[in-house]
Design goal:
Layout lengths: L33 H18 L5 E3 H8 L8 E5 L5 H10 L3 E3 L6 E6 L2 E6 L1 E2 L2 E2 L2 H5 L2 E5 L2 E5 L2 H10 L8 H11 L5 H8 L3 H12 L6 H4 L1
Parallel strand pairs: 2-5
Antiparallel strand pairs: 1-2, 3-4, 4-5, 6-7, 8-9
Helix pairs in contact: 5-6, 5-7
Length: about 220
């Protein structure tokens, strides 16, 4: 059993050509486990984007998984793309037989792949996805497929930015931060997020749990 995701099936043979992947649910053989289904969807989207040389980076829970965090995938696969590339990416996915649609929110594009939701994010933490953000991505394996993944610092910063009075699940983010702490530039995270109440509270919690050094020692 994989230590990072519960109830994963054994890895399937890799498909080197995205054209060999089945259409969305067309073969009726979706993985029985939701986490594995999300991974398969992420692998297919990543393969399609790589094949067409689209700039992108994997984000969200699957990015945390790729970095080695003990996450349980339950919702969707997230990818960061630049707004100026949205039309080209949408064309690539539709050409591959995937459903793509525009939600009311103007900061993302949604798709369906292998029965799973995929978010193509144009703005991460209320900031436009830029070439600089994508250039900082690290190429990591997602099961059998290597693809650009948000840097640990950008990933953690985006997770802290999502905290608010209405959404503040410290426990879920703590499980991501612990294994990534040595890869994160905490000075930059503090500079970007430490001024807001909820991220500041989470950073204080990390200090008390001795996950990170106190701010004074980090200077």
């Amino acid at each position: 059993m994989d230590r990072r995701v519960e109830h994963l099936d054994p890895p399937r043979p890799a498909r080197s050509d995205p054209a060999d992947w089945p259409l969305d649910g067309a073969d009726g053989s979706l993985p029985p486990d939701r986490a594995q289904a999300i991974l398969e969807a992420a692998k297919r989207i990543g393969s399609l984007l790589k094949a067409k040389d689209h700039p992108f980076a994997l984000a969200g829970g699957v990015a945390a998984y790729a970095h080695g965090a003990a996450v349980r995938l339950q919702h969707d696969a997230d990818f960061c793309i630049r707004r100026e590339d949205a039309d080209a990416v949408t064309h690539t996915l539709r050409e591959a037989g995937l459903q793509v649609f525009l939600p009311p929110e103007d900061w993302l594009v949604k798709a369906r792949c292998l029965g799973q939701d995929v978010d193509l994010i144009l703005e991460l933490a209320k900031r436009p996805v830029t070439s600089e953000l994508l250039d900082r991505a690290e190429v990591l394996p997602v099961d059998s497929v290597h693809m650009p993944v948000l840097s640990a610092t950008d990933l953690v910063s985006s997770l802290l930015a999502a905290f608010s009075e209405h959404h503040c699940d410290f426990g879920a983010v703590l499980s991501v931060v612990r294994p990534l702490r040595e890869k994160v530039d905490w000075r930059r995270v503090r500079a970007e997020r430490g001024g807001a109440p909820m991220p500041a509270a989470f950073l204080f919690l990390l200090e008390r749990l001795q996950v990170i050094e106190p701010e004074e020692a980090d200077r």
